[in-house]
Structures are given as C-alpha cells and as structure tokens.
What we know:
Number of domains: 2
Number of helices: 13
Largest sheet: 7 strands, mixed
CATH architecture of the largest domain: 3-Layer(aba) Sandwich
Amino acid sequence: MITGHGGNSRELAAELGCSAEEITDMSSNMNPFGPPPGLLAHLRERIGEIVSLPEVEAGSMIRDFAGSHDLDPGRILAGNGSTQFIHALPEMLGTRRALIVAPTYADYADGCRKAGIEPEYFLTHEKDSFHPDTDRLSKSLSGVDTVFFCNPNNPTGVLTPKSELEALARDHPGVRFVIDESYLPFVPGGEDKSLSKAGLPNIVCLNSMSKSFRIPGLRVGFLIASREMIRAWSQQMQPWPVNSLAQEAVRYLMQHRPGIQAFVRRTRQVMQEERAACAKRLAKQAGLRVFSSATYFLLASIEDGPDSGELCRALGREKILIRDCANFKGLSERFIRISLKRPQENQALLKALSRFLPEKTSREAASLGQGV
C-alpha cells in the first residue's frame, strides 16, 4: 500500500507541538465547505441507531441513491467507501491482466496486487498536460481485460470527455472499464458527464460521497454496473457493508435534495473562482508550472527550486500541508498537488509559497504558459 496519502495533519501537529485544528490541510481532497448544513445535526439525533444492526444489504440507502440519480437500484451496490470496491474489483471481475491509466490513485494497483496481479500502466505525459491520448490507449488494450480510469483524475485534475470513454468501451467490448467518478460532483454539470447511464455492460462506475460531502470517516461509496454484474457480485458481498450512521447520512442527503443541490452548486461556484484565481497567482511563482484542472485541486511541477519533499517540509513548518506527489507512478520529486480550501486559507498558502518561490520577472510573467 502506498505511504504518504494526504491528510497527515495529526502527525504534523504532534511534530510541531500544536493541535490538529491549527494545521491547514491542503494535502487531502475534501470539500472545504462540508459537511452540508443539517447533516451533522441529523446524525446526532440518530446516534441511537448504533445499538442495532444496520440494514443488512443497505437496500433503503441504495433505493434513495438510485431515486435521486435516476438509476435502476438493481444496478447498484453500496459499500464501505469506494475504496472497498477498488480493492475487491480485480477478484470480482476475475481480472487476469489490468491496465491503469496513470499517474493516478495508488489503490487501483494495491487492489490488483491483493488479487495476485501485477498491473501494467498507461502513462500520460507532462508535455500533453497529462491528458490521455485515447487513440493511443485503444491501441494498448490488446490482451487487457480490465482498465482502471479515474475521471476527473487524481492528482492531475484532468477530465476526459464522456464521449471518448464511451467510444473506448464500445470499441473494446471484451474489456471492463472501471471508471472512478469520485471527483465528478465538483465539475459543473458533472451529472451529465457520468458514465453511470451509458448502458454499456462493460462499464463499472464508482461513486464516493467522502469527498463531495466531506464525510470520509463514515465510508460511503457506490458501485454502478449492469444488472447481471450486480446480481453476481451481491452474492459475494459481506453482510452489513455500510454502518448505521452512514446509511442515515445517505438517507438525509438524498431526501433533502433541494438544499443539498444548492450546497453543491455553491461549492462548485466558489471552487471554480478560487481555482482560477489561485492558478493565476501560482503561475507567477518562478520555477512553478501549474496544470489546468477540472476540479478543485491543482497539480504543479517545480521547474526550478526546492524539490517536492523540501517544499512540503518548509510549508509544514508554516502549519500548511500540501501533497508531495513523488510517490505517484509517472511523477517525481518535482510534483506537488494543492487541494484548495476556503479563500482565506488559500491566501495563506500563496503568501507562504512566496517566501520559498520568488515571483517571475515581468518578462517571464508576460510569457506565462497558456494551460492554466
């Protein structure tokens, strides 16, 4: 399993001798405005549910999710976070040869290795701003039976058009495409960009509520696939896959759709504004290249200056955590990822960065790259 996931605020706090609340954690991809209004109060009222077993197959939770997303509940499984499915899918699919579109989340590889499979990688390139060449990918699928694809991708923020992924799946009906859409709720119009309604039997979609609603401790995830796949896989699922409070959270979120949708729209709007402003400001730092992103985190490469580890440690001393991307397959100690937060926290990061990375000269600023 990869070490160095984001979110090590407690470890840094212990090192600095402060509380975890004093750390600005921009290393972990969570909605800075969550949880949504009313959710925590609802969970406090329902805390008594933990004295009884949860619904054995989380059927009510699945029906609530299906109804709010206009999906067939017979095509959905609920689980202990999308990570549970990521680790189970290679065995569930009977995968023999897996291809991972990278750089991306390391758990796809971990899941494959748990099933005794050493995955292969299709690496996207920095010169293409990490946008996958789906024509080249199509030519790489000979003998492959399972593809893992994060969309939008972590850590690059790249969103691949739905039409391109559908075309891949249609052209390769013998290949199962696992599309992780955990960050799609942050994309404007994300609902229309999901592959969950593509109707293709070789597409498996993953949905996570951890990031968009900031409830990672509850572990809530869904898998959407064909009825045939779900019918077979439901026999392999352990009983009580989702705890009582997680089921209550989904019930609240799905049954209060107008307010929740307003919360999502507001999150998207503010994060779009912050992403544009922060990307523009970051691009002015000497030796830093910022890549375009469809979501609220930004990948950057350090062209000149401290390496990613040194920069992360320096910011850590300022009580700010960002993600060192050196351990992502296809990246190196030149890359960092910044998960944007509220405006005042973003400004604090930019101010701290200016102490370690000077601003470009006026000539350099005039010739900034066009990709931000």
